[in-house]
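Note to self: keep these together.
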Amino acid sequence: MTVGGNLFKAIARRRNRFASNQSGAALVEFALVFPMMLLFFAFLMESGRMLWTYQTAVAGVRDAGRYLARIAPVDICLTGGSLSGYSASLQTIVENSLGGGNLFPSSVTINSVTPSIACHAGAYRTDPAPVATVSASMTVTFPLASVFTLFTGAPTTFTTSISDQARVFGQ
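Structure:
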């Protein structure tokens, strides 16, 4: 045998050992799967947070509508009054808990809370029957939005409107 033949066999043995070595396979597989895991985790967290925020806002608007139905004058349709003076107190009801603490994280903004009145004719206790509507506009900014923009280019905020109606029973 020649020196070149032995060298060729040694190189072939090393190449075969390298090709059959599995020691770094798990790291490579993890590196391939990690971006998808990160995207799934971010999607799961943001979906849960969005659902919680929306349900909290719906409950606040419903409470504000019930409050307005109790304090607005029952003869508001006959006298032609306005509910715009209640906007600040209604926004406080939507944003805060009973203890006065803020219900939403800093990434959620209640843009406006608007009360309105509609008068429905019919055979009710009062004719026409006043129905108060409370509408709130809110903007949510996603904290993990940078992960979404990395993969999908999804928007980092969304704005929605929530409303609730209640029949005015008055004071």
